[in-house]
Amino acid sequence: MIYKVRGGGVKRIITIIIIFSLCIFFGISYGNSGNTEVNVAQVDKPAESQQAAQGGNDTTDQDYAADKKDKKEEIDLNLKPNEAGRIMILMYHNIGDEEREWVRTPANFLKDLKVLYEKGYRPVSLTDYVRGNISTEQGMTPVVITFDDGNLNNFEYLENSQTRKDSAIGLLMDFNEKHKDFPLEATFFVYGEHPFWQDSLIEAKLNFIIENGMDIGNHTKDHNSFKKADREEIQKQIGEEAQYLISIINRDDYTVNTLALPFGERPEGELLIKYLASGSYNGVLYENISVLNGGWNPAYSPYDKRFDSVSIPRIRASEMNVDNVGMYNYIDYFDKHPEERFISDGVAEIVTIPADKGESVHLDEAKELYLY
Ligand SMILES: [Zn+2]
Question: Which residues surround ligand 1, an ion (CB under 5 A)?
Answer without folding.
Answer: 1, 148-149
